[in-house]
Amino acid sequence: MRIPIIDESNFIQKIKSRKNPFFAEYHAFYSSWFGGIVKNPEMMLLPMDDHMVHRGDGIFEAMKAVNRSVYLMEEHLERLFDSAEKISLNLPFDVNHVKEIILETLRFANQDNASIRVFISRGPGNFSVNPYDSIEPQLYVIVIPLKSPLPEKYIHGVTVGKSEIPIKSSWMNQVKSCNYLPNVLMKKEAVDRGFDFIIGIDSDGRVTEGPTENIMIVDHNETIIHPPLNNILKGITMVRVCELARENGMKTEIKSISLADVKSATEVMITGTSLNVIPVVKFEKGVIGTGHPGAIAKKLNKLIINDIESGKHGISF
Ligand SMILES: Cc1ncc(COP(=O)(O)O)c(C=O)c1O
Predict the structure, then answer these.
(1) How distant is the alpha carbon of residue 39 from its chain centre?
(2) Stretch 95-123: mean pLDDT, rounded?
(3) Mutate to test the pocket of ligand 1, among 209, 226, 239, 277 (most ligand atoms within 8 A of CB)
(4) Domain of 248: which CATH number?
(5) H/E stretch holding 303
(6) Residue 138 maps to which CATH number?
(7) How many domains does the chain have?
(8) pTM, two decimal places
(9) Residue 123 — pLDDT band, cuts 50, 70, 90?
(10) How far is the CA of 103 from the centre of ligand 1 (A)?
């Protein structure tokens, strides 16, 4: 076999010949390594020796823009910088720089609604596992379409399964790292078993979270409960939904949730940036509550939609 040699003279032509149906969805990409914004999807490339690529040594955030405003941007940036601190990433830029880069990339993408993924990597270096072998952390921002579940999922509710994948340690769960292999395998389980979502269980049988979403239940006293934040990612949506619930006279509590609590809950709901609040009507083979979306989940979803549409908690671009 003769493998073609790619050099400067045919590199552009080679990468342009790659067909990828997802390319149509990539609106804009910022790379600190390139020092600018890239529009051509085939040029949205990362250095192979970036430790984020070969070791998963990086952190990320997923936020959304609605009506040209980034919802809860400050909260997402705070979580991003918390993650950076937890893995000792010494950043050569501050939060305002990251904010400006995101807003400028969004202006260039020119979409009213979008999903924004922000990555901070350990940076290029050699191929060792040693984080000190990288040159400097890099910032990458990609703007893609905002995809939410179909409206019928909010009307009829969703199904949730119990994951068999061992969850990450409690410390790792609090970092939004680029080490999402357990989360990926959980999502695969959900797809393979035909569930809309799947939930992790820790070694003590306590409910944790989904691959990219949180779970909350409502008990018989109409209290909205979510698991302690030391064993899950602090979901920005879940935290905001609980604030809105309290502002509207509802009770919230943070405490461990067992499988039995889920099964006997009057309502169960899933929260996340692209979902808002989605009602659960089935857990594994059992029905939740009446088997129909509950009133509290519906109310909370309305409250957060109003909060997003008010623009009061977003940053415009
Ligand atoms: C592991 C995990 N849990 C929960 C969430 C939900 O968090 P948020 O509401 O900030 O999207 C996410 C999404 O980012 C996640 O990756």
Answers:
(1) 23
(2) 98
(3) 209
(4) 3.20.10.10
(5) helix 295-310
(6) 3.30.470.10
(7) 2
(8) 0.97
(9) very high
(10) 21
